């Protein structure tokens, strides 16, 4: 299982939210590049980055900092937030992101996902399933699509998607543990690689996700709050590729 420490960007700062609520935004680290290099020093090979401004209003004000991480950190960057169209997708991929994460657009404009797979292959794209009470949320988690998350996952698999990033919004930033039941249901529903996001808090969480056979786990607030040692998490997860 790969471990993906997370950097969320807003207004050029490294921040975290609680349950996706923009009113709870707070800075958690200094510069993005400095933070990413610390991840690399701990043995991480990937970093999960989210452009929160892009996700909410489509403005890429964080791209200079994100581009520094892509080009100077030595990490593979999985980047989401604000990929709403094919031009947005091209910008992210041509900037050097190893994997583009399509969230809301996978619901509203699934042809963006089709284009990514046709142009670069399924390994360069992931679909983010941001879930609250079993329903997929869009627009920076602020809108309810009405779609059942398992039905949506099946639709994406049928389109050729191989990697799904599942976020339980209720657990995100809460240090409450992952949503194991929903993750297990997702494993039953599709054959995609699944990345767990939201609530990963302790080393035991990492071990349990690994033993479930998940492809990856995103570590956010637990790193910044000090409840999880990244180097230990990487070691427990196994080979990072």
TrEMBL record:
GO terms for biological process: L-histidine biosynthetic process; L-tryptophan biosynthetic process. Pathway: Amino-acid biosynthesis; L-histidine biosynthesis; L-histidine from 5-phospho-alpha-D-ribose 1-diphosphate: step 4/9. One of its GO terms (molecular function) is 1-(5-phosphoribosyl)-5-[(5-phosphoribosylamino)methylideneamino]imidazole-4-carboxamide isomerase activity. Its EC number is 5.3.1.16. The keyword Flavoprotein does not apply. It is found in: Cytoplasm. It is an enzyme of class 5 (isomerase). It catalyses: 1-(5-phospho-beta-D-ribosyl)-5-[(5-phospho-beta-D-ribosylamino)methylideneamino]imidazole-4-carboxamide = 5-[(5-phospho-1-deoxy-D-ribulos-1-ylimino)methylamino]-1-(5-phospho-beta-D-ribosyl)imidazole-4-carboxamide. The active site is at 8 (proton acceptor), 130 (proton donor). One of its GO terms (cellular component) is cytoplasm. Keywords: Amino-acid biosynthesis, Cytoplasm, Histidine biosynthesis, Isomerase. PANTHER family: 1-(5-PHOSPHORIBOSYL)-5-[(5-PHOSPHORIBOSYLAMINO)METHYLIDENEAMINO] IMIDAZOLE-4-CARBOXAMIDE ISOMERASE. Belongs to the HisA/HisF family. This is 1-(5-phosphoribosyl)-5-[(5-phosphoribosylamino)methylideneamino] imidazole-4-carboxamide isomerase. The lineage of its organism: Bacteria, Bacillati, Bacillota, Clostridia, Eubacteriales.
């Amino acid at each position: 299982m790969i471990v993906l420490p997370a950097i969320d960007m807003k207004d050029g700062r490294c921040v975290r939210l609680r349950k996706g609520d923009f009113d709870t935004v707070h800075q958690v680290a200094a510069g993005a590049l400095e933070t990413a290099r610390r991840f690399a020093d701990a043995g991480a090979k990937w970093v999960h980055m989210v452009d929160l401004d892009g996700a909410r209003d489509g403005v890429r004000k964080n791209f200079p900092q994100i581009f520094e991480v892509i080009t100077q950190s030595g990490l593979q960057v999985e980047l989401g937030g604000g990929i709403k169209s094919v031009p947005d997708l091209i910008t992210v991929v041509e900037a050097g992101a190893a994997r583009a994460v399509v969230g809301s657009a996978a619901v509203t404009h699934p042809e963006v996902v089709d284009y990514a797979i046709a142009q670069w292959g399924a390994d360069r794209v992931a679909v983010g399933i941001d879930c609250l009470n079993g329903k997929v949320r869009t627009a920076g988690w602020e809108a309810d699509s009405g779609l059942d998350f398992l039905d949506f996952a099946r639709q994406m698999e049928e389109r050729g998607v191989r990697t799904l990033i599942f976020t339980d919004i209720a657990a995100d930033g809460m240090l409450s543990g992952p949503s194991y039941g929903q993750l297990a249901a997702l494993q039953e529903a599709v054959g995609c690689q699944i990345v767990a996001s939201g609530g990963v808090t302790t080393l035991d969480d990492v071990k349990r996700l690994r033993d479930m056979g998940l492809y990856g786990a995103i570590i956010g607030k637990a790193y910044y709050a000090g409840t999880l040692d990244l180097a230990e998490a990487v070691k427990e997860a196994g080979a990072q590729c």
